[in-house]
Amino acid sequence: MATSISATGLRSSFHGSWGTSIVGEDFNMLAKTVPTQVRVGKPVRSQPMMKNVNEGKGIFAPIVVVTRQIIGKKRFNQLRGKAIALHSQVITEFCKSIGADPKQRQGLIRLAKKNGERLGFLA
Which residue has the higher pLDDT, 90 or 122? Predict the structure, then answer.
């Protein structure tokens, strides 16, 4: 069904009713052109990545990078996780001793993370 627009108006090659337009030869020709199977590949997902804006910067960044290369990425991340957990516990105990509420404690933990990024501990 080709449709074209010209200066004289709208022209169409459709001749017939809607009921007969996909029955017969047109339907058979259309059915032959449609693939019977369609392959769909796995969707490509990028790994979520928490990127440090100060990566490679900071006074401790070179030490962190060299340590990661020496002990390996997996062991380094385990060690870093333990250090972060211990630091969070120290902040929590400090907040308990001064009577700070959980919102203030969370703010201090966020501040510690920002300072760690700036100093290069999260490089």
Answer: 90
The predicted-structure confidence for 64-109, as pLDDT tens digits, reads as follows: 999 999 999 999 999 999 999 999 899 999 999 999 999 999 999 8
Residue 2: CA atoms inside 13 Å, Cβ hemisphere, count? 2
Distance CA(78)–CA(53), nearest Å, equals: 22
Please give the structure tokens belonging to residue 29.
């020709």
Compute the distance between CA of residue 118 and CA of residue 1 in angstroms, rounded to an integer: 66
State the number of CA atoms in the 13 A half-sphere of 116 facing the CB: 16
123, 52 contact by CB (below 8 A):
yes
